[in-house]
Design brief:
With 85 residues, this protein is an alpha+beta fold. The chain has three helices and four strands, in the order E-E-E-H-E-H-H. Strand 2 and strand 3 form a beta hairpin.
Amino acid sequence: MTYTYRPRGVCSQYMELEVEDGILRSFRVLGGCDGNLQGIARLVAGMPVDEVIARLDGIRCGGKPTSCPDQLAKALKQMKEEQAC
């Protein structure tokens, strides 16, 4: 399943997640810090969704109340909520 998310409060503008059987298969981002986001994408590929959420939820960027990793966690939470309905 491919899921798209529009992050808030960060430099990135668009996130696309591919999840299969509870595993995050791929993560792509438009905008933001390209090198850091490519690194994050490679680190989380193949990881269970719940583990990604547990590791990234609440990470802040400088003085901002959120970050791109935190927004990824929020996207995955939202995806899970929508699937539960």
